[in-house]
Amino acid sequence: MALTPDDVVTKQFQHVRFKEGFDPDEVDDFLDEVVVEWRKALAENEELKAKLAEYEAGGAPAAAPAAEAAPEPVPAPVEAPAEPAADGAPPAAASAGIIELAQRLHDEHVAEGKAQRDQLIADAQAQAARIVSDAEVKQREVSERLERERQTLEGRITELRQFESDYRSQLRSYIEGQLRDLESSSTNSGSTPVSAVGQ
């Protein structure tokens, strides 16, 4: 299928997900220039084809009066078709060059886009690996800190239980000692006569 200027004008490209790549307006402007030049080349080509067909048909009206006036200028009409053919070659070559340039630019842009995509993916993977590694290190540090705090708290609880046990035991001994003293003082006061207490 031959590529036409209208194909270039109506060509739609997919937008990339990440805003990396080329400015769409700049690409559109360049493609508009390509289309203008291409249309000029096609118009010149059609004009030259028409002139060539006219010369091949023998209808060279401008050269006919010169041919009647002098028989020597006959080679001029022979050269005339060669000139349009030679003139037709540069526009065709120019359009081919423009198409080749556009294709090369397209290929370069695609290759650059792929390289940028691969770089973005590699950077994202490296960043993800760093984040996971940092998270694992932080998780280990937090776990170790919480384990130390747990051991400290368990040791403190053990100390408090021991203190409670010792305190209860001392308090019981003290209260029992006070009760014994109270009982012994009440027994001593019960055997002493009331008259002796007053003296």
Note down, in words, how this protein is organized:
This protein has 199 residues and is mainly alpha-helical. It has a domain of 103 residues. Helix content is 84%, strand content 0%.
Name some characteristics of this structure:
199 residues; mainly alpha; 5 helices; 0% strand
SSE arrangement:
Layout (H helix, E strand, L loop, with lengths): L4 H6 L13 H33 L6 H7 L5 H117 L2 H5 L1
Tell me the number of strands: 0
- Which spans have pLDDT < 50 for at least 5 consecutive residues? 61-89
Overall geometry comes to: rod-shaped
Gyration radius, in Å? 54 Å
Condensed summary:
This protein is an all-alpha fold and 199 residues long. Helix content is 84%, strand content 0%.
